[in-house]
Amino acid sequence: MNMKKWSTMGLAASMVLVAAGCGKTAAPAETTKPAASTAPAATAAASAAPTAAAAKKLTGDFEIQYFVGGYGDKWWKKVIADFQAANPDLKIKESAGPKINEQMKPRWIAGNPPDFVYIDGPELFDRQMVTDGQLEDLTDWIKDAKNVDGDKIIDLLAQKPQEFDGKIYNVPFVMSSWGIFYDKALFKEKAWAEPKDFEDFLAVSDKIKAAGINPFIHTGKYPYYINGAVLLPAIVSANNNDYKLLQDMSTNNLEAWKNPAIIKGLNKIVQLRDKGFIDKASVQINHTDSQSLFLQHKDAFIPNGLWLPNEMAKDVPASFDFGFIPSITQDKGGKVVANTSTSTFAIAKKAKNKDAAKAFMQFVFSKTQASQWAELSGAPSNIKGDISSSKAPNFVKDAAKFLSSPDTVVVPTVSFAADVDKAMQDASVALTIGTITPEEWVKRVTDVVAKQKK
């Protein structure tokens, strides 16, 4: 898929900001019945309007697993309450929390998974789940599946489902763009220019460093932040703006891993390292610690996802004005690269109540629920046109502007096998502190890719 008009306009219209990061949340929870909905009766009734999707009476047990991250669980509580009201004979169990993926892992391995799963947060990798045969094949079903309003789900999506060997196993409900954040207010005060390319980024970082501020901090304990926001866009730029290379890499194509664009992309990180622009604290801290230092102006730039402002809402200074740039590694005159990531919904292959799981999928992919997601999470969904850009915060408008520009390469979500992704993360940390070279980074990762091929 190349840069189609529907992609950029659809993404700009819906501008999905997913809670892919881990937030400050309550302890993991398991409940059998959600609290009654606090929404007006008319809203709940609209959500539960009878359609072909709800024609079949749903009974029995139905378990939903969802990760609670930066956007909390208000939407989940609401949508589950609405679904329960529409299906009173269904016994719904929520398995949720910030560590739920880790806690549920033994059940997935043992073949006793929940029925419905939200694939987001640590410990869940869609490609690995597909490889391990854990997810239901939705290819034929999703082609014609309609939501509770009678609209075809596939036609409502700003970003279409990723395919694994031509098959669809999960459907994106929320989406984020990786990128680089900075404080517009600070930059205005210091008369620093927003970088348009890598040359600009290096130049302004020199000024930032001279002012006694670290130019760049990342999340050393979760290196997929720097990979998603810096490395992968750099590889796409070095590959003449063609993101198919990333897709080939994700399928463990060893020839793809020999492409010189990977070394070129890695060398952008090396330049940041060798110029002393990377905060040395990065290697040992988690996402909230790095974000806190950024908000305190100890660091000027941070690679992150669009969930950052909401995740840190309680700690954001009143004067802080989030600026967002999808990529900073393109050469002078090069296109911006927006590396998107989605969080998806899936049904377990060994689900005990697939009827309820499919009905819930049809229920959540409605414009009503997309609107409620925007209201309760503070971010829009992957359903086209679910919020007005006039109500969006400034950084959302910035992101939407980039995503609708013909000068932006929008990269569809690319996911790697769990072992390969882990190898990439570990190697990137080592690269940032100078213990390995770009060539050694590639060797480390391709050794793991080769094992995956066996």
Automatic annotation (TrEMBL):
Superkingdom of source: Bacteria
The keyword Membrane belongs to this UniProt entry's keyword annotation: yes
Signal sequence extent: 1-19
SUPFAM superfamilies: Periplasmic binding protein-like II (SSF53850)
One Pfam family, short name: SBP_bac_1
Keywords: Cell membrane, Lipoprotein, Membrane, Palmitate, Signal, Transport
Family: Belongs to the bacterial solute-binding protein 1 family.
Protein name: Extracellular solute-binding protein
Protein's organism: Paenibacillus chondroitinus
Lineage of origin: Bacteria, Bacillati, Bacillota, Bacilli, Bacillales
